[in-house]
């Protein structure tokens, strides 16, 4: 068990609060303790997809501790779940373990995921996702698989011709699914011999509850081991947040409300460092939930870079570290084709924007807050759907210039 102390510095007053986070033994299948949020099938599914997302993020982030990282894990969960419908029982249980579904014991798993995806994609929340399996036509594909995925998730896998038109096909589809916002998904053609490709993408247009008065003010953003970069910043006094500080992780944590029951968590290390290993290792659905209960309301003088980010990566090299090496060697996708098939790519692209507008003004009457929250150095952030607890996006920003659209 890990005990973490949060310290909130609010003007001159100090208040202490504590959160406990249970680390459970996943390998022995020990009974996991669930907080109240994780009690319905949808919120349990929310926790499973989040934990998968944190694992994926951790693996990508640890590959190189000096780079930006950005993912929309829920769309990756979706596409790998589509794939699981084509697997043997063994393949399915390997995938379910990586996706954290093995903890759910949910006989209606696919319907639950479908409901969760629908609930986080309602228009007000600002998230659109695309997830689809693309298969080489030469594999003599079993049509039942196409029908099964389409009936369950409303997206029909697609057979590729193996020519130059494939890239345009995929890119057009992703653009269409994300309302025109995720463009040029692939910038080079898929490898000629790749049999099976998982495509996932997301666009997030975040809408603050409380608007920012200033936006686009150019200020310095510190970068580890380099000179600061000039970034457009959003600024506002008396901005309502929930806040705390974690002395073990040496960072300030803030939760900012977005519209339609979504929130952003910002983890801001005390030092200018891109190495957030300790923090990354703490992230689980339960940790973030426990944390959110300890944060206290505060009004801050808030400065935040304009978040207009885009990121693309092939996640295939990470799947081995998710416990899928054995599966990758022999994916056993017997319901897709009788011929042996292998996964050729797991391309993923995510784009986000946050507009300075909000539907409320910060309080004008109170004197300017003494507490300031200046996000002007490397930070980690995540976007969570509060109703389901599902992690929608997660990113580490070490140099916002390199992520900016
Ligand atoms: C990053 O931080 C961790 C934990 O504080 C440390 O063990 C590791 O050596 C650091 N990595 C680098 C590349 O500095």
From TrEMBL:
Signal peptide from the UniProt entry: 1-19
PROSITE patterns xref list: SERPIN
GO process annotations (BP): negative regulation of angiogenesis
Gene3D superfamilies in alphabetical order: Alpha-1-antitrypsin, domain 1, Antithrombin, subunit I, domain 2
Pfam family, one: Serpin
Alphabetic keyword roster: Signal
InterPro entries assigned: Serpin_CS (IPR023795), Serpin_dom (IPR023796), Serpin_fam (IPR000215), Serpin_sf (IPR036186), Serpin_sf_1 (IPR042178), Serpin_sf_2 (IPR042185)
Record protein name field: Serpin domain-containing protein
Source organism superkingdom: Eukaryota
GO cellular component: extracellular space
GO MF entries: serine-type endopeptidase inhibitor activity
Family membership: Belongs to the serpin family.
SMART domains: SERPIN
Residue span(s) of domain Serpin: 54-400
